[in-house]
Structures are given as C-alpha cells and as structure tokens.
Write a structure and sequence with these properties.
The structure holds two protein chains of two kinds. By secondary structure, chain A is mainly α. Chain A is built from eleven helices and two strands. Chain A has a two-stranded antiparallel ribbon. In chain A, β1 (59-60) and β2 (65-66) form a beta hairpin. The longest helix of chain A is centred in the first third of the chain and has 39 residues, at 8-46. In chain B, strands 6-7-8-3-9-10 form a six-stranded mixed beta sheet, sandwiched between helices. Chain B has a four-stranded antiparallel beta sheet with strand order 2-1-4-5, covered by helices on one side. Chain B has a domain at 7-99 and 169-254: P-loop containing nucleotide triphosphate hydrolases (Rossmann fold). Chain B starts with 6 loop residues before the first strand and ends in a 5-residue tail after the last helix. In chain B, 33% of the residues lie in helices and 26% in strands. Chain B is α/β, with parallel strands linked by helices. Classes of the chains: A mainly alpha, B alpha/beta. Chain A binds chain B through residues 102, 170, 172-173, 175-183, 186, 190-191, 194-195, 289-291, and chain B through 55, 57, 60, 62, 85-86, 88-89, 92-93, 95, 97, 99-104, 111-112, 115-116, 152-155, 165, 168-169, 172.
Chain lengths: 291, 259
C-alpha cells in the first residue's frame, strides 16, 4: 500500500483548497455586481428622458423639465481648464522627481506631501478654493476658481501616474543614452517620454473622468445652482452636471423621477467613454512601442 | 608585446570607494592603444568597477568616491575642465545585456551621431543612410538588416542586438571601446560572432573588455590583466600569462581553482 494515493490529510487539504477558491470567486463577483446593477438601473430609469432635446436644451419650469445643455458645457469647461493647469505642472514635477532628483530628505518630504495631498477630502479642497482663489486672488465664484481647485485636487494623481509611467521605462535605455553622451533632457525627450506617453495619457484621461464627477470642490467656487446660459469665459459662473444632479435630486420639488436618472446616466456615460478612450489610447500606443 | 604602440589609457593610484567599501586599491595600469586588453578575475574583484572609471559612469551613483588619476589619450579625464559628454564621446561602452534603444535600427545607429552633430544642421536622408550603412557594415550586420532598417532594434536576435549596440558607437568615432562582458548574454554561436567582430575592431580602436570566460580572454585579446580584491596582480601579454603566469593566484585562477 506504499502507493501514491491521497492520504486523509491530502483530502482535507483539497477540500479547503476548493472551499477557499469558491469563496474568493464569490467575493470577486460581489465586487463587479454593483457596477452592472448601477449601470442597468440607471439605463432603465434614465433612458425615457434621453433625447437630443434633453442633451441640447436648457432646463425649464424651475428645473423640473427641459434639458441639461448648460451643465454639460459647464462640466467640459471646468474639466478642460483644470487640466490646462494640472497637466503641465504635474507632468513637469513628475519628470523632475523621477529623472533628475536624487533620493534625499527633500524629495522624501515632497513625496510625503504628494501622498497627503491625494488624501485630502474634496470638501477641504473646496474650502481652500474659496479662501485662496475666490477671495484672496479675487477670481470670485468663477470657472477659473473652480477649475484651479479641481486642478490642485488632481495634481497628486497626475504626478503619481506620470511618475509610474516614467519608471516603467527600462533603466537600460537611459544608460545607453547617457553612455553615448546624451544629456538628461535629450534622453528624456527622445527615449523616455515617447515610451512613457501611453501611461501618462492613460493617467490623465482617468483623471478627466474623476474630475467630471466631483461636486464638493466646485460647489462654492464656481458652479451655479441655476444659470441657463452658456459661460462666455473663465470668469463666468457655470452650471455643472454633478452639481445639477445634486440640486434636482435634493433641492428642487416636483422633479419627475426620470430626470435625475437621466443626468446620472449622462455623467456615467462620460466617465465610461473617457475610460474606454484611455484603454484604446493605451492599446494603440503600446502597439507602436519598439520593445 | 608591442611596446611601440602609444598609451591609450593610463591610471595612477586609482582608488575607488562605494560608500565605505573600497573596491579599487591604487591601480596603476598602462593600456596601449589599438589592441584588445582583457580584464579577468573572480566576481567582485573590481574589474567592472575599473572599466566604469574610464568613462566616469560610476559617479552617477552619488555615494562613489574616486582618488588618483585616469588619463585617456593623454588627458586627465577627472580634471575639472573636462566635459563629461566629451569623455563619453571618446569612450564608448557596450553592456552585458544588449540594450538597443526603443527606436528603429537606423535611428539606433544615428542616435549618437545626431546628438553630437546638432550644430551642423539637419542630417540629410542620404548622409544618414551612408553613415548607417558604413557603421552596420563595420559590425558585419549590414547584410542581415539592410532590408529592415525601419524595424525596431529590439526585434533582432541578441547577437544582432549586441552588434547594433557596437554599431551605434561607430558614427561618434570613439577612440576607446569599453565592453563589460559583452558576450555573456549570448549563445555560443553569438559569442563567436561577436568575438570575431571585436577582433576585427583592433587597430582602429582600443578595446578594453571584461570577461569571466577564460577561453575568451585567451583567444580574443592581446594583453591580459588579472585582478584580485581590487588590486592588479598581473598585466602581461595574453600568450605569456596563460602559459607562464608569474603569480600563484593567477595560475590558480586560470586553471579554475576559484572564481
């Protein structure tokens, strides 16, 4: 009987193994379930109001009817101006930290600051935005003030994702360049950046979808309750989708049930579209990679 | 040994510390130009460290401290007036793992040239083609890549990649080529091909090559330096060293008693 049959202990181990496997699979399913439920729920509830008219007209009847056009345009403004601010600063800072800075106490303090900045609650950013941009710099409640607030909020994420993308470029490429007498900047420009681009863009696009959904930071700094005109410049106030959703769900009486769900559907739609775009981007750029 | 050749590299009392660990002790070496000198010795004996002093790549690590002098072609490369980029231009380096840049084969070859000749305006297509062709011919790679110059350098076999890495140094016209175990990532056929190429490059370049492979040092170098614990034990013509080593340590190492 000195064969290779399973012993009692082996059989017990196998049972545990199967159990654990199923348990973890169950947890994984629980994780993705809400995503689908939310999506299906929103489509069912919000689809009836979805139309060209809904997307391209302004709200009417005390926001109980009509469309969301000013809010849609306002969100685009807010996100665009925020990126205009956070992307150049964030990318430059990440390049400095990853390619130039040596590991010393200063860079460690900066890293710590970035991590902490990422953890600051958005409502705190909002208060900071009011104090700094609305009042101190005198931008008033405006797209500029709101976008700068959003920009500061997204900065740490842009830095971290850019830095990760840069560090994914193999060290051997840099060494090869340096050894041929290329300067750091030449190395970055010709070799490191082109190969980190897909990662950097992915990070930025994911930030777009997050920024589009933020409510608290824009509430006091630039987003208006009801303003049925399109903004003409960065010093105007504007409506925004996220705040509009909050307003018609909680602040306005007699809103038909489908209306907020329609707004939510558009918001989710933007997020999903942005995420798909970032995946497509990454795929295309990765295929062009030479390694 | 050909004493007529001019000195290419000369070090005087070269010592190097990684933090508090001393990796080189007063290394005095005179390496003649236009020949292949191989550096042998057990792992950690300082041969790679020595190699990396010749193009000052060690100092990128902030905790490295060097003392003594290194002369390349008669110039003290650690002198304050020396521009690092000029040193790198004169002293090319080939690494253990082939590291072609993530560019096309053609752009890999032209990369260094473009960087060092930016003041001469845009490189015309014809001139670029000519430079690329002559460099690739020099490393015996032209025939196999001439129809795919636009494809990525990383797509070549390891042997071809290593040849490409040597080819991209050519247009910059270095005087010295440093090679840090250039064949250790290659299969026997690749090793043979790259060794042949390195042999081809004598006369025109001073080649300093670190190797773990005794047979390689023996068949593919003119002179040989044996190092142990950060010190030079023996520096002689390869033929003599392998037949009649002067020191017991050298004999033991060559015969494979340690390493």
């Amino acid at each position: 009987m000195a064969g290779f049959e399973a012993s009692a202990l082996n059989r017990r181990d196998q049972k545990v193994e199967r159990l654990i496997r199923w348990l973890f699979l169950l947890m994984t399913l629980l994780l993705i379930l809400p995503v689908f439920v939310i999506l299906i729920f929103l489509v069912i509830k919000g689809w009836p109001v979805m139309s060209m008219e809904f997307l391209f007209t302004e709200p009417s009847n005390g926001m109980t009817a009509g469309g969301i056009f000013p809010a849609l345009v306002g969100t685009v403004w807010l996100v665009a101006v925020a990126l205009l601010f956070s992307v150049p600063i964030g990318v430059a800072a990440a390049i400095y930290l990853s390619e130039y800075a040596s590991d010393n106490w200063l860079t460690r303090v900066i890293n710590l600051a970035i991590i902490n900045l990422a953890g600051v609650p958005s409502i705190v950013h909002a208060l900071f935005g009011v104090g700094a941009f609305v009042l101190f710099f005198g931008f008033g409640t405006s797209i500029l003030a709101a976008s700068l607030t959003l920009g500061i909020m997204t900065l740490p994420v842009v830095i971290v994702s850019t830095r990760e993308a840069l560090q994914a470029v193999p060290m051997a490429f840099r060494e090869a360049c340096w050894n041929m007498g290329a300067t750091r900047w030449q190395t970055i420009r010709h070799v490191v950046l082109p190969n980190a681009l897909s990662g950097i863009l992915t990070g930025i696009i994911l930030e777009v979808s997050r920024t589009a959904g933020e409510t608290a930071p824009i509430m006091f700094t630039g987003a208006a309750f009801f303003l049925p005109f399109l903004p003409q410049g960065v010093f105007d106030e504007t409506m925004a989708l996220s705040l509009h959703l909050f307003v018609i769900s909680t602040q306005v009486p007699n809103v038909p049930e489908a209306l907020p769900y329609g707004v939510a559907l558009v918001l989710i739609g933007i997020v999903l579209a942005m995420n798909s775009l970032s995946i497509a981007f990454r795929t295309v750029l990765r295929r062009r990679k030479k390694w | 040994m050909d004493k007529e050749r001019p000195l290419a590299i000369k070090t005087q009392k070269l010592s190097l510390w990684y933090g508090t660990f001393q990796a080189l002790f007063d290394v005095d070496l005179e390496i003649r130009g236009g020949m292949i000198t191989s550096l042998i010795g057990p792992s950690g004996c300082g041969k790679s460290t020595f190699l990396r002093c010749i193009n000052r790549i060690n100092e990128r690590l902030g905790y490295v401290r060097t003392a003594g002098k290194v002369h390349v072609l008669g110039n003290d490369i650690y002198a304050p007036a020396v521009e690092l980029l000029q040193v790198r231009k004169q002293v090319g380096m080939v690494f253990q793992r082939p590291n072609p840049l993530p560019l096309s084969i053609r752009d890999n070859v032209l990369f260094g040239y473009r960087i060092h000749n930016r003041d001469k305006g845009r490189l015309s297509k014809a001139a670029g083609d000519e430079i690329a062709e002559s460099a690739l011919r020099r490393v015996l790679l032209w025939e196999s890549v001439k129809d795919k110059l636009g494809s990525p350098g990383g797509g070549l076999s390891l042997e071809e990649q290593q040849k490409l890495c040597i080819a991209r140094l050519m247009p910059v016209k270095p005087a010295v080529l440093l090679m840090d175990e250039p064949c250790s990532a290659l299969d026997p056929n690749g090793t043979e091909a790259v060794e042949e190429l390195i042999w081809e490059l004598r006369e025109e370049y001073t080649v300093l090559i670190v190797t773990h492979n005794m047979a390689q040092a023996r068949r593919a170098s003119d002179e040989c330096i044996f190092m142990l614990m950060g010190k030079v034990v023996e520096h002689r013509s390869t033929g003599e060293m392998f037949v009649t080593p002067r020191h017991k340590e050298t004999a033991d190492y060559i015969e494979g008693r340690y390493g």
